[in-house]
Write a structure and sequence with these properties.
Low-confidence stretches of chain B: none
Distance between the termini of chain A: 32 Å
Helix content of chain A: over 70%
Helix content of chain B: over 70%
Largest sheet of chain B: none
Oligomer: heterodimer
CATH class of chain A: Mainly Alpha
CATH class of chain B: Mainly Alpha
Order of helices and strands of chain A: HHEEHHHHHHHHHHHH
Order of helices and strands of chain B: HHHHHHHHHHHHH
Mean pLDDT of chain B: 87
CATH architecture of chain B: Orthogonal Bundle
Largest interface: A-B, 109 and 105 residues
Low-confidence stretches of chain A: 1-19
Strand content of chain A: under 5%
Mean pLDDT of chain A: 86
Structural class of chain B: mainly alpha
Number of domains of chain A: 1
Radius of gyration of chain B: 23 Å
CATH topology of chain A: MetI-like fold
Number of domains of chain B: 1
Number of strands of chain A: 2
CATH topology of chain B: MetI-like fold
Strand order of the largest sheet of chain A: 1-2
Chain lengths: ~300, ~270
């Protein structure tokens, strides 16, 4: 190794002081780009270009077939002021409670109680079972849940068994409960991932920190606040980032369970974009909603990542 | 350690409860799938005469064989190419570098958080003008683009974790970047690539929005996309729909159980690095 690194120094290839790089070196400087270019082609054509086009569409009134009429920022004004367009955006933020807050809190409590997953049959089973919602298509999960929530479904069966039959209803068609019902499907999907991530993360916390806390006479709650919570900052950041994106950009679950109904009780921006673009043929408005959604996700996720990275 | 025992029991109870909550929808699907067709069973109840034949009927009704073939074609179209592109691009960014690499990396980071819904409208018209609408290419090509940010960042992170001496030692022997990539980095990247392959397989197999928006014919979609159409056709026949849903989930679940350890590692890492 020493010999090799000596030769590197002698050849001067990596010496910043060398006066003028030879032509071969200059070619080398750009070799990296050649490796990156093939990946940039599909990314540019199928992600960056559509983004730019979306921004362009958002300034027009267009039904997808006829002539487009330039309307400036009118579509954005509609997205940000009319209650019809604002409701879904509000729903997206409310979904964060179900997709993020509930699973992360439950996962944290479990992780704190277990202090890492013990080895054994329980751990193996938990790993397989809790991951199933991450593996199956969300559509299939949503179909299964529609059946759980239906008037003949498990939930009502359970309510009747414990004598609360008067509570039973078609949950997804209920104006008061449909949103909660859809949100809980999201909790169900995120719960396993968050729990396992947090349980794995707690294993990495230095055990002497816990000993020190105990010697200082800290109770379980103080120990949790002083050691566990800061120690899991990174894992919590990951759970929150992943699930917040899933909440803001949800589509599959809502499409299959309620199609946004009843009324617009469960309408979310993702589904609204789809309906505007392909059913109502309001391409301009759909694109403006799309851009707003993208900006919202960026605005929410960027600070989250900064917070969780700050821990390192 | 004695005071920890009740805590541990409480933790285990919670884990078991979570598992039960995870399993209930599937149990309910399963008992429903075994009931006589065109009846509406109630919640979870084991039928007196389980109709196993429902699964065969659902298999035919959903045209599952061509569907599995279609999904496989799409996966084969996306995953190997995406892996190759990402392996090379990650190397270019992490090991070689070039003027402007930071800008390229920044562009890719933007793509990490772009929701698919934000691209779907322009993608539709773009693919229409390319004459690719309603073909499997309408899924393969956009997915490749959509996977690039995550895949390249993933591979870049992996190469950065390798010791620098590796490259230096090889390049001193006069090997060009391509040779170093082929001989040194690519063989070392196998674990990172196989985890990435698992994630890309899942995301392709389960893709729904692109499938229903860009391909009208359910037989050319992914399995997940076709499930949406199946729901439309058999929405009233709860029994057949349940059997079909279970069959459609089966391949991914089977692959998952077989490669369980790989999957869990990949998904946990995927979450952390995403």
């Amino acid at each position: 190794m020493t010999l090799l690194s000596d030769r590197t120094a002698l050849s001067g290839r990596r010496d910043p002081a060398s006066p003028r790089p030879g032509p071969r070196l200059r070619a080398r400087r750009w070799a990296g780009l050649l490796f990156v270019l093939p990946a940039l082609v599909p990314y540019t054509v199928f992600v960056l270009r559509p983004l730019v086009v979306s921004a362009q569409y958002s300034l027009y009134d267009w039904n997808g077939i006829g002539a487009a009429r330039f309307v400036g920022v009118d579509n954005y004004r509609r997205v940000l002021t009319s209650s019809e367009q604002l409701t879904p955006i509000l729903h997206a933020f409310e979904l964060i409670l179900f997709f993020t807050v509930i699973p992360v809190c439950l996962g944290l409590v479990t992780a704190a109680l277990l202090h890492g997953l013990p080895n054994g049959p329980l751990a193996t089973t938990a790993r397989v079972v809790l991951f199933i919602p991450q593996v199956i298509p969300l559509v299939a999960a949503a179909l299964a849940w529609s059946w759980v929530y239906s008037s003949d479904g498990v939930l009502n069966q359970f309510l009747r068994t414990i004598g609360l039959g008067s509570w039973s209803r078609a949950w997804l068609g209920d104006f008061t409960w449909a949103f909660t019902a859809v949100g809980l499907v999201g909790s169900w999907v995120s719960l396993g991932l968050c729990t396992l991530l947090l349980i794995t993360g707690i294993n990495k916390i230095d055990p002497t920190l816990y000993d020190a806390a105990r010697i200082d006479g800290a109770g379980p709650v103080q120990e949790f606040m002083a050691v566990t919570l800061p120690g899991l900052r990174r894992e919590i950041g990951v759970c929150v980032t992943v699930t917040v994106i899933a909440a803001l950009a949800s589509f599959d679950i809502v499409y299959v369970t309620t199609q946004g109904g009843p009324g617009t009780q469960t309408l979310v921006p993702g589904l609204q974009i789809f309906q505007l673009a392909f059913t109502q043929r309001e391409v301009g408005l759909a694109s403006a909603t799309a851009i707003v959604l993208m900006v919202l996700v960026l605005l929410v996720v960027t600070p989250l990542q900064r917070i969780s990275r700050g821990a390192e | 350690m004695n005071h920890r025992v009740p805590q541990l029991i409480a933790g285990r109870v919670m884990l078991v409860l979570f598992m039960a909550a995870t399993a209930i929808p599937f149990l309910s699907l399963f008992t429903t799938a075994l009931a006589p067709q065109n009846t509406t069973p109630h919640g979870i109840s084991w039928p007196s005469h389980p109709h196993w034949h429902n699964f065969v009927d659902a298999f035919h009704a959903a045209d599952l064989m061509p569907l599995l073939g279609s999904s496989l074609l799409i996966v084969l179209g996306v995953v190997p190419v995406a892996l190759a592109l990402a392996a090379a691009a990650g190397y270019g960014l992490a090991v070689l570098g070039f003027p402007g690499a930071r800008i390229v990396f920044g562009l890719l980071l933007v793509g990490l958080t772009v929701p698919t819904e934000s691209l779907i409208t322009p993608l539709y018209y773009q693919l229409e003008s390319m004459g690719l609408l309603n073909t499997r290419w309408a899924l393969v090509l956009p997915l490749m683009g959509l996977f690039m940010p995550f895949s390249v960042v993933w591979m870049r992170t992996f190469y950065l974790s390798l010791p620098k001496e590796l490259t230096e030692a090889a390049s001193v022997d006069g090997a060009g970047p391509w040779t170093v990539f082929r001989r040194v980095h690519l063989p070392l990247a196998r674990p990172a690539l196989s985890s990435l392959a698992i994630l890309l397989f899942l995301w392709t197999w389960n893709q729904f929005l692109l499938a229903i928006a860009l391909i009208d014919d359910p037989a050319k979609r992914t399995v997940a996309g076709a499930l949406g159409a199946f729901q439309g056709h058999y929405g009233t026949n709860v029994v057949l729909l349940s059997a079909g849903s279970l069959l459609i989930m089966l391949p991914a679940v089977l692959v998952f159980v077989i490669f369980q350890r790989h999957f869990v590692t990949a998904l946990l890492q995927g979450a952390v690095k995403g």
